């Protein structure tokens, strides 16, 4: 599509159906991969006006970690740009000239960590995915939102490719540039929709919380997230999962590949369940076939052996450590009244969320409901529940809405009689 035809498509409001966006308005921008080109981009975006659309592409499933392998930006008066963060790993200057601009991202929490690694952090933002959730849209992926709100279709076939590939193929670059092509336009339409529903202040509070959130703390016992670990019942088997996970993580980091490409989770669970005594027994398990690298097989069996030799006192606990209430499934035995409070509060919050046409988890997270249900404030009132929720991180708009219904649910909760 020519530039003129593309402009006509974007400006048209009378199209009979979704209009495919096939080319960026100014064409595919060259990939910025040197200091001089980056300096020019910094100057151009500093001279631009209004919000800046930002996106980042990672190589999840291919490379270790969640670093960015392409950064896309677009701003009025600056056009679009594509930056190679492998060649330009320090984008601090670009972040500084955009410090006063509102960043427009889709699913901001996914991209902000890898942008921060490059020196870019927003002071204010607009998350179009979260805005869609608050506005009650049933599908909030970028392609679905652009189609339902703006009437354009985006080609999403390259979302899961290996973005660490160099050079990046032209179709991938076109896809990446189009991801920021209408993001500010989507933001403006969603702002109007949220305002019409009386939810704009809710969204602004959510966006401010995301922008000001500290970096996520390292996960405690990340090996416990191995898929299928819940099937294991013995602590020594859990120790084997831990040893195998840590060995895999070390190898994946050294090779800069996704851990799942080194050893699938299913293979870790199979080895931990069987606790094989030697390489031959290990090779008989799924994921450790005859074509497996001999050196790696020796490392896996060494990890299993290390778990086998651990003293009982050093074995990991059956459950993950936590500082909150116990799992809800145990509440009926531990504290039947707390279980009744939780059941009543869940029902009340679900009903309220449905009446407001937004997901229950965006109205208030289930974790916050569990915590106040397990240890409710005293004396019990909407005000004390609101204070408790705010201390746990709830935003003012959330506490204003849910505190009264949670307080009422707690007050009327009764332990079922046999």
TrEMBL record:
Q: Note the superkingdom of the native organism.
A: Bacteria
Q: Which organism is it from?
A: Streptacidiphilus monticola
Q: Specify where the region named Disordered lies, as residue ranges.
A: 1-26
Which lineage is the organism of this entry classified under, starting from the top rank? Bacteria, Bacillati, Actinomycetota, Actinomycetes, Kitasatosporales
Domain HRDC: where? 234-314
Q: Which SMART domains match?
A: 35EXOc, HRDC
Protein name as it appears in the record: HRDC domain-containing protein
Q: Which InterPro entries match?
A: 3'-5'_exonuclease_dom, Exo_C, HRDC-like_sf, HRDC_dom, HRDC_dom_sf, RNase_D-like, RNaseH-like_sf, RNaseH_sf
SUPFAM superfamilies (alphabetical): HRDC-like, Ribonuclease H-like
Q: Which Gene3D superfamilies would you find in this protein's record?
A: HRDC domain, Ribonuclease H-like superfamily/Ribonuclease H
């Amino acid at each position: 599509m020519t530039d003129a035809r593309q402009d006509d498509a974007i400006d048209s409001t009378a199209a009979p159906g979704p209009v495919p966006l096939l080319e960026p308005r100014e064409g595919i921008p060259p990939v910025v991969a040197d200091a001089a080109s980056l300096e020019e981009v910094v100057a151009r975006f500093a001279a631009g006006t209004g919000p800046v659309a930002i996106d980042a592409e990672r190589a999840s499933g291919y490379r270790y970690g969640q670093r960015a392998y392409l950064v896309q930006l677009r701003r009025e008066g600056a056009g679009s740009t594509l930056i190679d963060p492998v060649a330009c790993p320090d984008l601090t200057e670009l972040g500084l000239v955009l410090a006063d601009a509102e960043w427009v991202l889709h699913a901001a929490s996914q991209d902000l960590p890898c942008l921060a690694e490059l020196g870019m952090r927003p002071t204010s933002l607009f998350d179009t995915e979260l805005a869609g959730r608050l506005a009650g849209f049933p599908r909030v992926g970028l392609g679905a939102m652009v189609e339902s709100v703006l009437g354009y279709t985006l080609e999403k076939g390259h979302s899961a490719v290996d973005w660490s590939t160099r050079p990046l193929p032209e179709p991938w670059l076109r896809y990446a540039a189009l991801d920021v092509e209408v993001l500010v336009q989507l933001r403006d339409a969603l702002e109007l929709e949220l305002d019409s529903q009386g939810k704009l202040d809710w969204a602004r509070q959510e966006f401010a919380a995301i922008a000001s959130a500290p970096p996520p703390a390292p996960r405690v016992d990340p090996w416990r997230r191995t898929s299928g670990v819940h099937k294991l019942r013995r602590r020594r088997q859990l120790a084997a999962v831990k040893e195998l996970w840590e060995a895999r993580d070390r190898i994946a980091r050294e090779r800069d590949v996704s851990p799942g490409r080194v050893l699938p989770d299913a293979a870790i669970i199979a080895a931990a369940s069987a606790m094989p005594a030697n390489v031959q027994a290990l090779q008989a398990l799924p994921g450790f076939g005859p074509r497996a690298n001999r050196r790696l097989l020796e490392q896996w069996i060494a990890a299993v052996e290390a778990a086998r030799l651990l003293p009982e006192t050093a074995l990991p606990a059956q459950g993950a450590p936590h500082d909150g209430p116990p799992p809800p499934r145990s509440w009926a035995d531990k504290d039947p009244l707390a279980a009744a409070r939780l059941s009543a509060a869940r029902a009340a919050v679900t009903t309220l969320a449905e009446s407001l046409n937004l997901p229950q988890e965006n109205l208030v997270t289930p974790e916050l409901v569990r915590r106040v249900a397990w240890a409710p404030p005293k004396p019990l009132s909407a005000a004390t529940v609101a204070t408790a929720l705010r201390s746990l991180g709830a935003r003012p708009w959330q506490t204003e809405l849910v505190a009264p219904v949670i307080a009422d649910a707690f007050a009327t909760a009764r332990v079922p009689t046999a």
